[in-house]
């Protein structure tokens, strides 16, 4: 029955699985909420600083390999067996580079030994998660959103269970860090078994010519993802360098809820990227039509969800994080009011990847990152966590404008 339904309504079925995958990110939000309840505001700020830094480093471990896997496999499914083992081989190199960079960078940024140890533990978790992201790229390219949903939901359920037990048992920050590492290592083995259903080989392979071609194609997207992730989490890192750990925790609480809003456009983007990639080489008119509809949907979702979050920010923060996190209300209202920009950005990123605007995407995001850093440095000393929120919103608006200009030029070409 599922096969018949997918043949008749493939977009609907894939969107359903993508919705399940994106919704499961709420399980991470639940874990972060539990952590905020069990940890002090200072310890929660330490944890969120380490999580932000290692998430940025994680993009170096991938360097565009996940995105290039989605696009390449979507355009030629027969290439999956040949491409994926080579991608895994390249990934091993970048994982080593990322971990080495983290070993050097963490103690340079923060002298607190607790934070440094957290960074190292979460760095191992990020290395495994980077592999899982590449596996997701393969499954999305093959449009096996059912298997992707199974892998992602399992990963997040396991992380929530192990992390929640560690916090409930009173192990605090060390227990939470061990939970991240242990659950991700278990999922590594499970995903290896899952991938054997769709590709012949799930072990790294070495072919110098293939590595060169893969990395040449992936580098622009990789630098874009580094800029994008840095752009997303740099305000938390700057807060950790310029303000107190408690303020980092308050802002992280607001930003977690803001990220929860973006699960909606992430569903659209996950389904759109392989479809737009295929349509761009086959039917430009259909590509433009699908992109236009997706943008209208994203804007409508932003108005509804962002409006609700801005209006109900105080009771939402009190319910999920408790009275100790009342300072998170104002930055949440600011971020929610500007959610129309980030919702639109998700769709524009999918469109840019599908149209091979890799280098322009990197340039645009780099400009947004530079603006975000500059606004944070100027606004945080005077306005604190509210200044960090305003910096994010203004930089998002600039990024949307630049992306629209680049896509309009690209889609005018014959």
Please give the alpha-carbon distance between the first and last residues.
41 Å
Structural class: mainly alpha
What's the number of helices?
Answer: 17
Task: Assign a percent range to the helix content.
Answer: over 70%
Calculate the mean pLDDT score and round it.
Answer: 82
Outline of the structure:
With 414 residues, the protein is mainly α. It is built from 17 helices and no strands.
Question: Can you tag this structure with a few keywords?
Answer:
single chain; 414 residues; mainly alpha; 17 helices
Helix and strand arrangement:
Blueprint: H1 2-8, H2 10-23, H3 25-38, H4 41-62, H5 65-75, H6 80-109, H7 113-141, H8 145-168, H9 172-195, H10 208-242, H11 245-261, H12 263-280, H13 284-311, H14 313-321, H15 329-337, H16 339-354, H17 358-412
Please characterize this protein's 3D structure.
There is one protein chain. The chain is mostly helical and 414 residues long. It has one domain. It is built from 17 helices and no strands. It starts with a helix and ends with a helix. The model has no long low-confidence stretch (mean pLDDT 82).
């Amino acid at each position: 029955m599922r096969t018949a339904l997918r043949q008749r309504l493939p977009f609907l079925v894939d969107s359903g699985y993508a919705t399940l995958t994106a919704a499961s990110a709420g399980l991470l939000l639940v874990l972060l909420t539990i952590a905020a309840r069990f940890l002090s505001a200072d310890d929660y700020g330490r944890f969120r600083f380490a999580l932000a830094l290692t998430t940025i480093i994680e993009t170096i471990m991938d360097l565009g390999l996940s995105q290039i896997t989605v696009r390449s496999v979507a355009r030629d499914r027969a290439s999956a067996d040949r491409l994926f083992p080579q991608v895994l081989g390249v990934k091993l190199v970048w994982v080593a580079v990322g971990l080495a960079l983290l070993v050097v960078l963490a103690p340079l940024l923060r002298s607190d030994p607790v934070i440094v140890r957290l960074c190292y533990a979460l760095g191992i978790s990020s290395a495994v998660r980077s592999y899982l992201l590449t596996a997701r790229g393969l499954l999305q390219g093959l449009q096996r959103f059912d298997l992707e949903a199974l892998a992602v939901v399992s990963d997040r359920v396991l992380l929530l269970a192990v992390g929640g037990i560690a916090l409930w048992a009173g192990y605090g920050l060390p227990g939470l860090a061990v939970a991240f590492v242990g659950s991700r290592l278990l999922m590594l083995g499970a995903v290896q078994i899952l991938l054997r259903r769709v590709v012949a080989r799930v072990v790294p392979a070495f072919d110098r010519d293939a590595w060169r071609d893969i990395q040449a194609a992936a580098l622009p997207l990789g630098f874009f993802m580094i800029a994008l992730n840095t752009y997303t989490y740099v305000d938390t890192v700057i807060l950790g360098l310029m303000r107190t750990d408690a303020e980092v925790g308050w802002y992280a609480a607001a930003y977690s809820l803001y990220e929860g809003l973006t699960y909606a456009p992430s569903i659209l983007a996950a389904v759109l990227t392989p479809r737009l990639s295929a349509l761009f080489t086959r039917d430009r008119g259909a590509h433009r039509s699908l992109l236009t509809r997706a943008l209208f949907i994203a804007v409508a979702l932003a108005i509804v969800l962002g409006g609700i979050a801005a209006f109900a920010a105080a009771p939402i923060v009190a319910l999920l994080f408790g009275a100790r996190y009342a300072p998170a209300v104002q930055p949440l209202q600011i971020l929610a009011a500007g959610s129309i920009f980030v919702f639109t950005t998700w769709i524009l990123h999918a469109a840019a990847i599908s149209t091979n605007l890799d280098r322009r995407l990197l340039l645009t995001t780099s400009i947004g990152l530079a603006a975000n850093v500059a606004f944070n440095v100027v606004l945080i000393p005077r306005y604190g966590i509210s200044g960090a929120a305003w910096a994010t919103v203004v930089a998002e608006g600039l990024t949307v404008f630049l992306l629209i200009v680049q896509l309009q030029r690209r889609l005018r070409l014959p």
